[in-house]
Design goal:
Strand content: 5-15%
Shape: elongated
Helix content: 55-70%
Distance between the termini: 32 Å
Order of helices and strands: HHHEEHHHHH
Number of helices: 8
């Protein structure tokens, strides 16, 4: 979020990101390394160095970051695994179908929410809209 808010400023030092995000620098280093390996952020060396987003925040879906940091969006396994379990395990099919529906709903929201939406407040509106459609 800090890198998205300061996207136009160029590279941001890790200590500044850590301070603004209230995170330990060592923990943040691990996250930034994962993001760098996934080509979501770049690191810049030197006195004016730090980290920056490789793409505009509007081009980075939240689903990319969640999958990178937390793995599949489903409560257990990924969508293909769940489809396989639905086909193979008749005794638990209904449970796996619910897990797949949860995964699909979460994926839809996360894939259509960008990092820019998070910093602009549009993400709250999208989540509220998803709630309203479910309740109607």
């Amino acid at each position: 979020m800090t890198l998205a808010r300061k996207h136009e400023q160029g590279a941001i030092k890790i200590r500044d990101i850590a301070a603004e995000s209230n995170l330990p620098e060592k923990f943040l280093e691990l996250i930034l390394l994962e993001l760098k390996n996934a080509r979501i952020v770049d690191s810049v060396r030197g006195a004016r160095g730090g980290y920056r987003l490789r793409r505009d925040p509007e081009e980075i879906p939240l689903s990319d970051i969640i999958r990178l940091v937390d793995g599949p969006l489903a409560p257990m396994g990924d969508a293909e695994q769940l489809r396989g379990l639905i086909a193979e395990d008749a005794d638990h099919r209904a449970l796996y179908e619910v897990f797949l529906a949860v995964r699909d709903a979460a994926a839809k929201i996360l894939e259509h929410t960008t990092v820019a939406d998070l910093i602009s407040g549009k993400a709250r509106k999208a989540a509220a809209g998803a709630k309203k459609s479910k309740n109607t």
